[in-house]
Amino acid sequence: MKLEIIILAAGQGSRMNSSLPKVLHTLAGRPLLEHVVRTALGLHPAAVHVVVGHGGEQVQQALSAYTIHWVVQERQLGTGHAVLQALPAVAPDSVVLVLYGDVPLTEPATLERLVARAQQAPALLTAILDDPRGYGRILRSAEGALLGVVEDRDATASQRDITEINTGVMAAPAQDFMRYLPQVRNDNQQGEYYLPDVLSLAVAEGRVVATSRAGSELEILGVNDREQLNRLEREYQRRQARELMRQGVSIADAARLDIRGTLTCAQDVSIDVNVVIEGEVRLGRRVTVGPNCVLRDVVVGDGATIHAMSHVQETEIGAACTVGPYARLRPGTVLSEGARIGNFVETKNARIGADSKVNHLSYIGDCDMGPGVNIGAGTITCNYDGVNKHRTTIGQGVFVGSNSTLVAPLEIADRGFVAAGSTITRAVENSELAVSRARQRNIQGWQRPGKQGGD
Ligand code: UD1
Ligand code: CA
């Protein structure tokens, strides 16, 4: 049968103590709800319905990149009520999987197993917890058949001792939800319409409710406050680091690497402490990343080295390049093979040719640089006239002396030579020397000023 997925995300999340809707708080750089939506889409459902309430518009905007059918639950009258709001849009001949927007790390295989068991009757994902406090407890008959779920607040003392809990994840033929949900009542401690009540209604009609167990506790942990969010974040990061180490990456300290996006590494990559990876980053063979680097949407070729304290964004670094320490590579930077960017160098929209060097204290923006160029310390491309940006083109084998100012638009042809301290405003032709600075004058017999008056 066709699968449709309903994700509940209307709750306020008051324990986050935040103006941001709970499901928009991020885990590994992505909103909690986005994790759930991505997992859901991975199951190839016919439709994904997300029920929103608090901050609904903000939530929809944050996930506008995904194909989602949004359902608004005006008042949060309970999980059962929430699913009921989505049902009119669900095909009656489908199987429905219900997920929570604040339970981000459920494994696709676990969900596939549950859905497989829910083709004819409801099925529930349960877990055994050492500390089941706060969760709905699973009630079973002496023979072990599921009877229903009792919420923590409605449970008797002996029911509270039960350690098997409702994870909240449930699947059933759409027809079952359509049949049982309108019968659910709200005569409980919280005055809410509880979704798990559909299970006892099914059992009352002699149906058998299947259960399956989650693989690990991490899969079913929900986020209610920032401490739980942090616990999930650390666990998630540990898991990513472990997986990278399995793939042949050396990590100085798994607790001091944060990947907020995707990191793909070839063999023998080495990553030092306090590195933050954002967006999509790909590192080639034997790449080393020094301590305290931030890499966002970066591709790095084989054998390149990024030294400590470098900040690199939307950049391509060729094979065998070296970057940093203290380099800032901004969007649109492309380093060809063997290029070197040293300390306190900023680049933006710049192509640096093979084996070219910008080693110290420079700004290279809106620039096309050929191979074998040497840029002296303190060189600045003046790319902005206050209104427009202009490009600087530098041919191969060019030498730019220290503390030069290159006023764009400007072209320095192959093997051009700019004397140190020059301000260059006109094109430099092939192999020319350009000098643009006050001529030095030496004055012989010059008297230093003496001290005036005084004692
Ligand atoms: C729920 C379950 C409980 C289970 C636990 C697992 C019910 C009645 N209880 O309890 O058995 O052990 O999850 O974490 O289902 N939501 C809405 N609209 C509403 C109410 C809730 O969209 O009107 C959403 C919330 O945003 C949240 C999810 O449903 O994503 C769960 O709601 P919550 O209030 O956190 O339920 P729990 O009390 O944790
Ligand atoms: Ca909850």
Gross morphology: elongated
Ligand inventory: uridine-diphosphate-N-acetylglucosamine, calcium ion
Q: What characterizes the major β-sheet?
A: 11 strands, parallel
Mean pLDDT: 97
Tell me what portion of residues adopts beta-strand conformation. Answer: 25-35%
> In total, how many domains does the architecture comprise?
2
Q: Compute the separation of the termini in Å.
A: 104 Å
- Structural class of the secondary structure composition? alpha/beta
Q: Report the CATH superfamily of the largest domain.
A: Spore Coat Polysaccharide Biosynthesis Protein SpsA, Chain A
CATH top level class name of the largest domain: Alpha Beta
Q: How many runs of DSSP E, i.e. beta strands?
A: 35
Uncertain segments of ≥5 residues (pLDDT<50)?
none
Q: Taking strands numbered 1, 2, ... along the chain, how are they ordered across the largest sheet? A: 12-14-16-18-20-23-25-27-30-33-35
Helical percent range? 10-25%
How many DSSP H or I helices? 8
CATH architecture of the largest domain: Alpha-Beta Complex
CATH topology name of the largest domain: Spore Coat Polysaccharide Biosynthesis Protein SpsA, Chain A
Measured on Cα atoms, how large is the radius of gyration?
31 Å
